[in-house]
Design a protein that fits this description.
The chain crosses the membrane at residues 6-24. This protein is mainly α and 46 residues long. The chain is 78% helix and 0% strand.
Length: 46
Amino acid sequence: MWYFAWLLGLPLAAVFAVLNAMWLEMQRDRKLTEMDDAPAPAAIGE
């Protein structure tokens, strides 16, 4: 019966890892997009 735990647990862990990686990529892309959309700081002396 231990194999049922492995049969369910390994794919669940793999799905969790993939979803976590996708979420982290999405967070990084969101930060980069916000940085691109932010107005450029004014140059000193202008």
